[in-house]
Amino acid sequence: MSSRPLKFTKTGYRGPGPAHPTNLGPVIGTIARIGARVQRRKSLGVFSTIGRAPRLFRGWLVYSATMMPFGYLSRQDTELIILRVAHIRGSEYEYDQHKDLAARVGLSPEEIASTALESHGFVGRRATLLDAAEEIVKNKQLSDLTWTRLAGVLDERQQVAFVMLVTQYDGLATALDVLNVPVDEKRSGSQ
Q1: What pLDDT does 138 receive?
Q2: CA 164: distance to chain centroid?
Q3: Carboxymuconolactone decarboxylase-like domain: from which residue to which, for each copy (predicted)?
């Protein structure tokens, strides 16, 4: 049991939130600091929170990296999917992080903003991906029609990768909320 003071709100105890990188040990603390620098943030709450459980953090980091940035889907499609999941879930943290990443991989401000609209406005392949992502988040399943549409734009390997990406970021949105991870503050000079 931790000897640090508990954080209480009007509704009771809120999860541990991010640890200071110096409390994460040399390896995870360094990864958290590097991640924050790459993301142009003062700290990276997702790393500094999950990093409280070192064995879990290492596995999660490798697992996450196999989807983004080293996944089977294009970086632009991956970022659009993550943004749509973040919007549907109401995950301010995920949305804030990934809108910047989406811009870095070449998505326009209009494309990024459209992921947060009730009707995203995409057509074709991207519409299929965003509609399927939304259906998974809302229904925890895909209809036969949506599977048919998805199979028309993704091969079987990509279908598995797509479902794992959507459910990873759906679950991460839950974890970030339950663990009380606030949106990271941007470094000076970052947009």
Answers
A1: 97
A2: 12
A3: 54-133
